[in-house]
Amino acid sequence: MNQQDIISFIEQNDIQKIKFAFADIDGVLRGKIIGRQKFLDGLADGYGFCDVVWGWDSSDTPYDNGRTTGWHSGYPDAPVRLDLATFRQVPWEDGIPFFLADFSADGNGKPGSDLAACPRSLLKRIAHDCGTMGFHAEYSQEFEWFNFRETPQSLQQKGFRNLETLTPGMFGYSILRPSLESAFYHDLFDLLGEFDIPLEGLHTETGPGVYEAAIMHDEVLKAADKAILFKTAVREIAYRHELVATFMAKWNADLPGCSGHIHQSLWNPEQTKNLFYDPARPNCMSELMSQFIAGQLHCLPHITPMFAPTINSYKRLVEGAWAPTTVTWSVDNRTTALRVLNRTEAYTRVEHRVSGSDSNPYLAIAAALASGLYGIRHQLTLDIPASVGNGYADKKHGVLPANLSEATRAMANSPIASELFGAEFVDHFTRTRDWEWRQYVGQVSDWELKRYFEII
Fold first, then answer.
1. GO biological process annotations for this chain's record (predicted)?
2. Are 408 and 438 in contact (CB under 8 A)?
3. Which of the four CATH numbers 3.10.20.70, 3.30.420.40, 3.10.290.10, 3.40.50.300 does domain 3-114 have?
4. What is the pLDDT of residues 77-136, one digit of tens each?
């Protein structure tokens, strides 16, 4: 619907409140409910929103190293704009109208002097660049997550220990296990569809109470919008079944981690031809696809925090844990960083397997697209051969950073990262990751207490 259609809808249905949200640097949706008149008044010029959301972490603790905002600036309001193209209604909240927003300077969705820290604005710019290169980017992100028979209160009371999973045992791809919680299982599929997040599939993964969902592919910005909304929507639907969902990359050392794989392809502007497919070339991979993969592999060590943004991310990126550790690619091999799927033209694509379920979809997808376009723009040759067999053992072309500190230093000092995302964004993002690392190293873990308390 266009703006006038939305105004008419609001007025004809006597809607008195509207909900909106935007993603912060951690992928946390921040927002509020506003009244009808406030909504109407802000359509032209946007709404003021306290810019502390760019000056604190996921736990609302202010950074001590921020430049975007801080005590030095007094945390003023910054202009946030609703993207009317994201209009949908929340089916589990009586159909309240909902919009996604970003800190953009142009209300028409065109890149302008946007807030450099804003993840959605960053992806909009990269998607615009993709379009000017003559490509339509088709993307989707899939997620794995664990479900618990807990509440926010019980998590705190238990100190996040001895948690009860939704179901016991390892039941990957089970038809049996979802039948135990069929109301929740079907609510996920149906309510997400009503919320304009249609799923290709939903199933159990291996692990107690873990599900995996593949979101239907779409134009890259719409795909990221659906991915960011998916994570919060799943949590909200879970709440209504007295459950808690987590998208941590690795919540338990003895269980598999949770991925957030990104599926990607480039098409002609008319969306009639998959530009990654060429039956005359090896593996039906077009030269464009080879350049795209070459760019992603070349840039990956420079931008790993975009895919693995937390301390916990790197607990998943270990050998033999169904997550990659090497700078590798393959044809239909789940042990490499990039996996080519090429059985038919319509579904030929590259699956980026580094990204975890804890990633910020806007940043992970922006990084995937920007690095692929880098390979096309620089006409890189895919001189890394496809891995055959165990990709974990194929280390001759590089390995991924071992932790967030190492990954952040590499990105902060990388001219490639600045070329992809702009120096101002890289400065802000890497400062937030450095802050995250420093919060971690200052803590004393249960492991340290158990190992050293009595014996050392």
1. biogenic amine catabolic process; biogenic amine metabolic process; glutamine biosynthetic process
2. no
3. 3.10.20.70
4. 999 999 999 999 999 999 999 999 999 876 454 555 689 999 999 999 999 999 999 999
